[in-house]
Amino acid sequence: MGEVVIDEKQVFDFPEGLLGFDYIKKFVLLDTEDPSSPLKWLQAYDEPDLAFIVIRPADFMNQYELVISQNDLNIVQTKKTDDLIVFAIVTIPSNPADMTANLQGPVIINPEKRIGKQAIILTDSYSVKHRILDEIKKHSGTEG
Amino acid sequence: MIGDEIEVVVIDIKGDQVKLGIRAPKSVTVHRMEIYQEIKQENIAATKSEFDPTKLRELSEFFKTEKNDKKDKK
């Protein structure tokens, strides 16, 4: 990725890492080439080659219900979901139009304490492979 | 009870500490494990994404088009 200046404010502690990557205890949140894009990098602090593209559900959906356990909230040291920044990890297959967001296992971040975790939605409402573009097309279809 | 199937039970009481447990049918536990595995697999798939800068630029364009369609959003 080249030389990047990291603002400490973008560094987050993940005491439990991510599912399947529980050894990564620290992540950095970075812009992609275009800072105005909703796509961001969530990069392993100690392993810059290991990174995830993430997006906030709010950036492509009208509504996203964060129904998570008390344990998930406790790990990021907050009592309310309102305080959290929520991201979904994006999977980009060979055709970019097929990109999907994992809405079943969102990444929640407490911006004040700078602690994050991958939570699990307790309801069956969402998919681990939610098609982002289909969601966006839904919105533009409702104009006028 | 939480819903019809999940019961909160008292496992132990020591002084002023109460240890609670959850009694749920195996189907619930198995279901949770499956979701856990699904999320884990999807994380792994995500790291194998096409992170080519040109592709990422393309993707960002999709969101810009959406913004232009929204009349009141700046």
Spell out the key features of this protein.
heterodimer, A: about 140 residues, mainly beta, BH3618-like, nine-stranded antiparallel β-sheet, globular, B: about 70 residues, alpha+beta, two-stranded antiparallel ribbon, 2 helices
The radius of gyration over CA of chain B amounts to 23 Å
Low-pLDDT segments of chain A: none
Q: Tell me the radius of gyration of chain A.
A: 15 Å
Estimated structural class of chain B = alpha+beta
Textual characterization of the structure:
The complex is a heterodimer of chains A (144) and B (74). Chain A has two helices and nine strands. With 144 residues, chain A is mostly beta strands. In chain A, strands 1, 2, 3, 4, 5, 6, 7, 8 and 9 form a nine-stranded antiparallel β-sheet that branches. The relative contact order of chain A is 0.18. Chain B contains two helices and two strands. Chain B has a two-stranded antiparallel sheet with strand order 1-2. In chain B, strand 1 and strand 2 form a beta hairpin. The mean pLDDT of chain B is 80. At the A-B interface, strand 4, strand 5 and helix 2 of A face helix 1 and helix 2 of B.
Summarize the helices and strands and which ones pair or pack.
The complex is a heterodimer of chains A (144) and B (74).
Chain A lengths: L10 E3 L12 E6 L8 E5 L2 E9 L14 H6 L9 E7 L8 E2 L5 E4 L4 E4 L11 E2 H10 L3
Antiparallel strand pairs in A: 1-2, 2-3, 3-4, 4-5, 5-6, 5-7, 6-9, 7-8
Chain B lengths: L6 E8 L2 E7 L2 H22 L5 H17 L5
Antiparallel strand pairs in B: 1-2
